[in-house]
Design brief:
about 220 residues, mainly alpha, 10 helices, 2 strands, disordered C terminus
């Protein structure tokens, strides 16, 4: 689905718009679902349902919200929800629209180019969205002693370190270097995922910040 950097930016945008008291913890939740190994664990952490083969695959973030409804005020849980919403939007607006499943089946190198594009996009997104603040906030997040059932603390610790590494291992690239995605496509995705995540947050009774307090881009 979306890259670590994309999810972090989406969570950052939501945090700018909503009343989030502990932003580092919220950002930590915003990357947490990907801190797993193997297809089975990823299916579990992302609440995947259906099949990519027949186009019914979806992210059942409502199921996660129901399971943890008593903890929805926890910023980590809220960030986790935002990640799942982002992947639901990716599945609908990017994965299926670009027919990536069939393209990868026909040419396995498409998957390699997909991941290469993500690495190239890191530098572009960091520059475009002025992400230094996100790096500092995520780095300051304290890992809780216990987590939710889907994620192990040690895996999240390592994954957080890898995410922070994305800020420093980026090589400057241009849009001409991309082979699968476009900058416009990805920035459009980030905007759509942010808006959908905000709608979900509002449905949970969260409050938007005053517009005069909004920061960022």
């Amino acid at each position: 689905m979306g890259s670590r950097m994309m999810h972090l930016i989406i969570a950052g945008h939501v945090a700018e718009r909503m009343e989030i008291s502990d932003r580092p913890r919220f950002l930590l939740g915003g990357v947490a679902p990907d801190a797993v190994h193997g297809r089975e664990q990823k299916t579990k952490s992302h609440y995947y349902e259906g099949s990519v083969d027949d186009g019914t695959r979806r992210v059942n973030y409502e199921g996660f919200m129901q399971k943890y409804k008593e903890q929805m005020k926890d910023e980590f849980i809220l960030g986790y929800v935002v990640h799942l919403v982002g992947d639901a939007v990716w599945m609908k607006d990017i994965y299926f629209k670009k027919d990536l499943k069939n393209r990868i089946d026909a040419d396995p190198s498409v998957l390699e180019k997909w991941h290469a594009d993500f690495r190239k996009l890191n530098s572009m997104l960091v520059n475009q969205f002025y992400c230094a603040g996100l790096e500092q906030q995520l780095a300051s997040a304290e890992l809780p002693e216990t987590l939710i059932e889907e994620i192990e603390v040690n895996n999240l610790r390592k994954f957080t370190e890898e995410t922070l590494g994305d800020f420093h291992s980026t090589k400057l690239s241009s849009s001409r270097d991309l082979e699968i995605y476009s900058v416009a496509e990805i920035t459009g995705y980030i905007k759509s995922a942010t808006e959908q995540a905000i709608r979900v947050c509002l449905s949970l009774g969260m409050q938007e910040r005053q517009r005069s307090e909004h920061i960022g881009h």
